[in-house]
């Protein structure tokens, strides 16, 4: 039997990204973590399941290594008692973890995905969620990314990368939604 409420999947909201910003990397969606906080509050109030994903870096230089201060979750997005934390070592939260089996065991069909970064772990997790048959909703204002240099040396803004990622996922792998859309829908499901 399918779970009536969606599950919130919070991807990699870790302090390493604060370190990247402090080192001069530029990001988009400065209010993304505030929207994640809003989503966490709404899911907790409704009793809907929440899964926290952490990235564990394996390269010696990774700011996500478990012994590094960047591995820790940002305080605003910290899990509460009973909310599982699933540790991954690759981009997808489904590879090398028990996320899929936990969702299936819980009868969860709909996933609301947020976190960082839009074009890496969020995108990979969202693509796999869609391919695995979940009804995935990616929250556009609760995820962010950083400027990047392309293979030809071109600079691509975080805003452009974010927009292109959403365009690539839209309709094929996920529905693109806002935090407000999700919170409103959750309130309707609870009535």
TrEMBL record:
Domain Isochorismatase-like: 7-180
Keyword match Iron-sulfur: no
A Pfam cross-reference name: Isochorismatase
Record-level Gene Ontology MF annotations: hydrolase activity
Organism domain of life: Bacteria
Entries under SUPFAM superfamilies matching the protein: Isochorismatase-like hydrolases
InterPro entries the UniProt entry points to: Isochorismatase-like_dom, Isochorismatase-like_hydrls, Isochorismatase-like_sf
Keywords on record: Hydrolase
PANTHER family per UniProt: ISOCHORISMATASE HYDROLASE, PEROXYUREIDOACRYLATE/UREIDOACRYLATE AMIDOHYDROLASE-RELATED
Record-given protein name: Cysteine hydrolase
